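Hi R.,

Here's the chain you asked about this morning:
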Amino acid sequence: MAKKEVKTDLWVYELLKDAKIELTPQGSDIVEINEALKTASKNKTGNVGFPEYCGVVKDFLLVVEDKAALEKHIQKNEKDLIDQDTKAVKDYAVNGALFYALHLSQNTSYHKVFAFGVSGSPKHHRITPLFVNERGDYEVLPDVETFISFSEQNIDEYYLREVLKESTDQAKQTEEILKDAASLHEDLRNYGFIKDTDKPLIVSGIMLALREIEYKNFSVDMLNGDTNKTDGQKIFEAIRANLQRAQVTPDTKRDKLLAQFAVIRDTEKINLIDSKLGKTPLRHFTEFLYNSIYKSIRYNNSAEDYLGRFYGEFMSYSGGDGQTLGIVLTPKHITELFCDLADLKPEDRVLDPCCGTAGFLIAAMHRMLSKTEDQEQKMHIRRDQLFGIELQTNMFTIATTNMILRGDGKSNLHNTDFLAENPAKLQLKGCTVGMMNPPYSQGSKQNPDLYEIAFTEHLLDSLAPLARCLVIVPQSAVTGKSKEEQNVKANILKHHTLEGVITLNTDTFYRVGTNPCIAIFTAHVPHNPKHVCKFINFEDDGFEVSKHIGLVETPSAKDKRQHLLDVWFGRVEAESRFCVETTIEAEDEWLHAFYYFNDEIPTEEDFKRTMADYLTFEFNMLTHGRGYLFEEGGQQ
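And here is the predicted structure, written out as C-alpha cells:
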C-alpha cells in the first residue's frame, strides 16, 4: 500500500474516532459480513476483497473506501452514473465504496447501507456518502466534513431527514410550538388588549403559578371569575408563593419581580368573564398554557428543551409585522455553540452582562451540569457560578422566571446598567467565561460607549485574567468603520488578546436584518503582534429559512458544526476559503473576508476546463479578426 494511502487511512480512522464510531479496518468482526467479503474482489473474480473500514451502527452497515489523491475521488460514465467498471472501482474512492456496499447489501441481512468515498488530505479532501438499499438502488448524498451525522446518537435522524425526506419528531414539535405561540399571541390581543411588552410577563407569571399545582396551592379550577377575589389575585398569590419557594432573595429583588407581575392582578379586562369565552381571559390563557405546555414539560423526557423552544418561539414571535415584542433572542444553536467554543468546564464561572431572557446562562448552566455527577457541585453551579446583568426591568423579570422554570440558577441575576458598573468590582466575581449579545446599533459619535465593540471592551475588563470571552456582534463592530471604534479596537489589543472571529449565516437573526459574527478573546493578556488568529467563514452552517417556520436545522448542521470545532481547536487543517490563520493589526477588518486568499491547488479537471475556456476564447478572437491575445499587435 502506498505511503500516502496509509496516511489517509490513519486520518479517516481519527475522523471515525472523533465521531465515536467503531469500524473494523480491512475486514469485519461480524461473521456474516466477513463471510460476504470473502467474495468481494474488486476484480470480480469471486475472491476476497476488503474496504478500508467496515462495521455496523445500530441497524445500518457502514463501508468506507479512501484514496490519497483528490482527483481519484469519483468517476462517472457517459450516462452520468457512478462507473462500476473494474478499473473505476479499483481506482476511485466513491466507485469502490459503492461496489462494496452493493455486494454487502445483496449478500448479508443488512439492507440499509451507508457507503463513503473519501479522498485527499485533512486540508484538501472530499467525503461523499451514498445510501444503498436491498434492491441495489443507490443515492448520492451531499458531501460531509466529518462522520458525526452517522454516530449512534445521530444516524437515525440523518436517515429520516436525508434519505426518507421526512420531518423528525423535533421538527414536527417545533411546528406545533410555533402554532401555539401564534395562537396565544392572537388570544392575548383579542381577549385582553394586552400591550406587547406585557405579553411575556403574563405568560411567565402563569407558568410560575402553575408550578404551585403540585403543592396544592393553585389549580386551574380555582379561576372562576369571582369579582371578590379575582383570578388575577389568585395567580398573583401563587406567583408570590413560587418565588418564595424558589428562594428568590433578597426581599427587594422578589418585590421588584412581583411589581412586574402586578399586570396580571391589576388589568381589569382579563379578570372579567368574557361573553364569547364564558370565562375570564386569564382562565383561558392558563388553560391553554396548562394543556399545551405545562403538561408536556411535566411528562416529557425532553421537558427542558420543550419549554425552551416554546419560550424562544413566544418571545421572538413577530406576528408577521416585525419583532413586535422588541426582543431579539440569540438562537439556541448559537448559545450552544458558545458553550462548545468556550469549552465549558464544571468549574467555570460565567458572566452575561446583557442577559436578556438568560439564553446564554441557561445554555451554560445545562452544559456545566452535564459534565459532573457530583450533586454538591451541581448545586454550586446553579447557586454560585452564573452571573447575569439586565438593564430593562421587564426583561430582568423574564430572565429570572426563565431561569427558575429551566432549573434554577437565578441567584446572581441583577437589574442594573452594565456600563455603569465598575469593571474592577465585577472582576472580583472571578468569572472565567464571558458571553454576550449586546444591544445593536445604539452607538454613535455622541454615545461611543454604546458601540458593540465598546460593550465588548467593558466585558473583557470585567473578567478574570485568562478568561475566555465570546461576543456575537454585527460584522461592522469588528471592522471598526468609525474613528471611535478603531480606538476601542486598538485599546482592546493593548490589554487583551483576540483569538479569532467567526463569520455567521446572514439569517442567524432571521427577519432582524444584521450580518453577525462571533469574536473570541482571552482577557487580560496583551495581544502579541506575532499571535496568530483564526478567521473562519461559517456562513454555510447547515441552517436555512423555511417558509412559515423560520430558521431550521438541516441534516448537515451537526456535521458543519463539528468541522468548525475541529478547525477552531486545531484538530484538523482547513482550506483558506473556510479558515485563514494570520497575525493582525488593530486597523484591520477582523473578518475572514478581509484576510482570505485562494490557496487551493487546481485539479487536472480544473486545468483542462481552463485550457478549454482559453482555446474557445482564442478561437473567438481569430474568427473576429482580432489575432492572438499575446501576439504583438493583437486586440487592436
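One quick note: The chain has four domains: 3-163, 169-316, 332-528, 604-636.

Cheers,
M.
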